[in-house]
Amino acid sequence: MPQSLSFNLVHLVFSTKDRKPCLEPEVRTPLHAYLATIARNTNCECYRVGGVEDHVHLAIRLSRILTLAKLVEEVKVSSSKWIKTQSPDLHDFSWQRGYACFSVDTKDLPRLCGYIDRQEEHHQVKSFQEEYRELLAEAGIEFDERYVWD
């Protein structure tokens, strides 16, 4: 086969260090746009970015020439540098070390985008920790609670 083709759709989730609620609405909207731009600059397609004050969700089609780990590194490093320039209150901002990533069937992309769009209302009744545990359980990912939160 002379051509390499792929369609790897992923749901990427990561939080602020210690889940600190520092992503206020005035920085959140431009941050989401910036995260999408970073993903697109790595030859990935970013369908949606959303989240609340302590974490973000991204729906991304992973480039066939980029590893997931490299994408996450690029997104987190670039965005944390950018966030630090947005306010003196954010000069010590950082993301948590880890992340979760889930493969998504292409037919479920509209559902995933809707889920990301409804983060504000979703988190009026559920904490990030509860949501994260549920996402891991739904994906069948075993984890040790002692090492999930940093």
Distance between the termini: 45 Å
Q: How do the helices and strands follow one another from N- to C-terminus? A: EHEEHEHHHH
Low-confidence stretches: none
| CATH hierarchy class name | Alpha Beta
Shape: globular
Number of domains: 1
How many separate helices? 6
Rounded average pLDDT:
94
Strand percent estimate: 15-25%
Q: Tell me the strand order in the biggest sheet.
A: 2-3-1-4
Describe the structure.
By secondary structure, the chain is α+β, with helices and mostly antiparallel strands. Strands 2-3-1-4 form a four-stranded antiparallel β-sheet, with helices on both faces. A hairpin with a 2-residue loop joins β2 and β3. α1 runs antiparallel to α2.
List its traits.
single chain, Alpha-Beta Plaits, four-stranded antiparallel beta sheet
Briefly characterize the structure.
The chain has helices at 25-41, 68-84, 109-117, 119-122, 128-138, 145-148; strands at 8-15, 45-52, 55-62, 100-103. By secondary structure, the protein is of the alpha+beta class.
Task: Give the secondary structure arrangement, pairings included.
Layout: E1 8-15, H1 25-41, E2 45-52, E3 55-62, H2 68-84, E4 100-103, H3 109-117, H4 119-122, H5 128-138, H6 145-148
Antiparallel strand pairs: 1-3, 1-4, 2-3
Helix pairs in contact: 1-2
